[in-house]
Specification:
Its EC number is 5.4.2.11, 5.4.2.4. It catalyses: (2R)-3-phospho-glyceroyl phosphate = (2R)-2,3-bisphosphoglycerate + H(+); (2R)-2-phosphoglycerate = (2R)-3-phosphoglycerate. By secondary structure, the chain is α/β, with parallel strands linked by helices. The protein has ten helices and six strands. A six-stranded mixed β-sheet has the order 3-2-4-1-5-6. The longest helix is centred in the middle third of the chain and has 20 residues, at 158-177. It is globular, with a radius of gyration of 17 Å.
Length: 253
């Protein structure tokens, strides 16, 4: 029988901006109290009950990703694991939509336009402007000082995010195929970008994928061929997961 290894993808716990239904992107919004609880009682609890163990963690430079990873590792009693924090795993940059309420935006521009910005593969929000409340905080963040000037985004489409994530996916896949048990704690659109790479989904297919907060997604690979074995497995209560997927898909209140 061929040797196999698993990869677990996970979207961070609910952030303060998720709670307020605001576009977040590269703004460093912290986890909400509910997000902290999700990391412990949903993500870590389901990983523990599935007997999942890890050797290495990947996350972004944003605190909601790093904090979720820290909470999970603490619950699993493996806080000593090496963590790779990579800016290329930052959430998609939502340009000048950053900090804007999704429902208010839909009331102004229509739901079709907002869903185009959110879900269309080439939907490109307007670039962030200096008048945006979060412009200087993002551009001057010490966490982003190693981002090359010519690669620092002012806005991104899903396509641009998929391309940005691609080199990190190659590093993750290399780890997985040599036997390293990897947990990747990332963001909604970045998780979708990774899923596109992992599953080989089309542009149209990935537009319809919705990732709930703190629900582990497990993939198994043939270590010799690099081929994906079977389908992804979401850990947790099926009804809850489906409800959360629908919530993510909607513009919200």
């Amino acid at each position: 029988m061929a040797k196999t290894n698993r990869l677990v993808l996970l979207r961070h716990g609910e952030s303060e901006f998720n709670l307020k239904n605001l576009f977040c992107g590269w703004h460093d919004a912290p986890l909400s109290a509910g997000g902290v609880e999700q990391a412990r009682s949903i993500a870590a609890a389901n990983l523990k009950s599935a007997g999942m163990e890890f050797d290495k963690v990947y996350c972004s430079k944003l605190s909601r990703s790093k904090r979720t990873a820290d909470l999970i590792l603490s619950e699993l009693e493996c806080s000593f694991l090496p963590i790779v924090s990579d800016w290329r795993l930052n959430e998609r940059h939502y340009g000048n939509l950053t900090g804007v309420n999704k429902r208010e935006l839909a009331n102004k521009y229509g739901e079709k336009q907002v869903q185009h910005w959110r879900r269309n593969y080439d939907g490109l929000p307007p670039p962030i402007e200096t008048s945006n409340l979060y412009f200087y905080e993002i551009c001057n963040s010490s966490d982003f000082q190693n981002v090359p000037i010519d690669e620092f985004p002012l806005t991104e489409s899903m396509r641009m995010c998929v391309d940005r994530v691609s080199p990190v996916w190659e590093e993750i896949k290399k780890d997985v195929l040599k036997g390293t048990r990897v947990l990747a704690v990332v963001h909604g659109t970045v998780a979708r970008a990774l899923i596109k790479h992992v599953e080989g989904l089309s542009e149209e297919q990935i537009e319809k994928v919705n990732i709930p907060n703190s629900v582990p997604i497990v993939y198994e690979f043939n270590m010799a061929t690099g081929q994906l074995i079977g389908e992804s497995k979401y850990l947790g209560d099926v009804k809850y997961i489906e409800e959360m997927k629908q919530k993510v898909a909607a513009i919200g209140d």
